[in-house]
From TrEMBL:
Cited InterPro entries: Phytyl_CoA_dOase-like (IPR008775)
Species in which this protein is naturally found: Candidatus Paraburkholderia kirkii UZHbot1
GO molecular function term, any single one: iron ion binding
Top-level taxon in the UniProt lineage: Bacteria
Name of the protein in question: Protein involved in biosynthesis of mitomycin antibiotics/polyketide fumonisin
Length: 327
């Protein structure tokens, strides 16, 4: 059982507002954990540790595995049930959405484009996240993080982005015609063993500009994704939470040094993905990713969608590229 003091209890003043705020977070997350259990998803209760940080996520995971386990029952859920899960928890994994031949072909294309250094690209050194090279002149400075504008890179990528399976999912969620944003994500994500950086906790919408913060991303695993090679982590139900700006740093990363934030981070789960699995997640869901501790590059394909009524704001980056209606 949890003990109250294990939730970063600030001191002896048990009746402080600070304490009750964290108690409410705890109660909310316990209800979320029970909801996961009812769906056949394993989310073990991990005792909060005041020494845990985003930078230590991989080391902490090696001691206490918290990888999200998807049961056979979960894989047999109806699309409607999975859509409801996305609404409730902020993310959902759909097993085997892309057939083997197609995903293998896409992975081979991604490998070839990486080997050719096919522009446009984003480098780890451009972002300077933890573990990334200091500059392009430093060792590993030309490690690629993203192969950009995936929609026009190859017809197979475009076919997946606008496929009937994805269109059906987005129509179910938005209840209207979905649009593919070419300004956000729209890339092949790579994570390299040596210089692939750790991504801190954040909401994708931090740099986006739409009429509403209501977009969904589709993350296709082109290979196995686990905590060992830098899989995604999500904080369940976090897309429903409101935060003051001081809960984030200047780069709009969720501050892991704050006790109230750390309590939320300790509820995170990491879906173990197999090739062809797709995880759909809301733009306000807090998520992160660790480093790649294996000897193989990890490849993922990522696209973002909005509903027809949620237009990008004129003059912003979100409106900088033509969008693609899924009709």
């Amino acid at each position: 059982m949890y003990k109250i003091q294990e939730l970063y209890y600030p001191g002896k003043y048990a009746f402080s507002l600070h304490f009750y705020g964290r108690l409410l977070i705890y109660i909310r997350q316990r209800f979320a954990a029970r909801a996961f259990a009812r769906r056949g998803i394993y989310n073990p209760r991990i005792r909060p540790n005041s020494g845990y940080s985003v930078a230590g996520m991989n080391r902490f995971e090696s001691r206490r595995t918290r990888e999200l386990k998807m049961s056979d029952q979960n894989s047999l859920k109806s699309k409607k049930e999975q859509g409801q899960e996305l609404h409730e928890t902020g993310f959902v994994v759909v097993k085997g959405l892309v057939p083997k031949e197609r995903r293998d072909a896409m992975r081979e294309i991604a490998r070839q484009q990486l080997a050719e250094a096919a522009a446009p690209m984003e480098f780890e050194a451009d972002l300077k996240y933890p573990g990334a090279p200091d500059s392009k002149d430093a060792p590993g400075g030309h490690t690629v993080r993203r192969l950009l504008d995936a929609y026009v890179r190859h017809s197979l990528f475009a076919e997946f982005a606008t496929s009937p399976e994805v269109r059906g999912w987005m129509e179910l969620y938005f209840g209207e015609t979905p649009y593919l944003s070419r300004a956000h994500h729209n890339c092949t994500m790579t994570k390299h063993p040596a210089y692939g950086s750790l991504t801190g906790w954040h909401r994708d919408v931090r740099y986006w500009a739409f009429e509403r913060d209501d977009l969904v991303s589709a993350w296709l695993a082109l290979g196995n994704e686990t905590v060992d090679n830098g899989a995604l982590w999500f904080v369940p139900t976090s897309h429903k939470l409101s935060f003051m700006s001081d809960r984030f740093d200047e780069a709009k990363f969720f501050r892991s040094d704050l006790p109230e934030n750390a309590a939320l981070i300790h509820t995170a789960v990491s879906p173990a993905l197999e090739p062809g699995d797709v995880v759909f997640f809301h733009c306000n869901t807090l998520h992160s990713a660790g480093k790649n501790l294996t000897d193989q590059v990890k490849f993922s394909l990522v696209f973002t969608y909005r509903g027809a009524s949620n237009a990008p704001l004129p003059g912003t980056r979100s409106a900088s590229k033509p969008e693609v209606p899924l009709v």
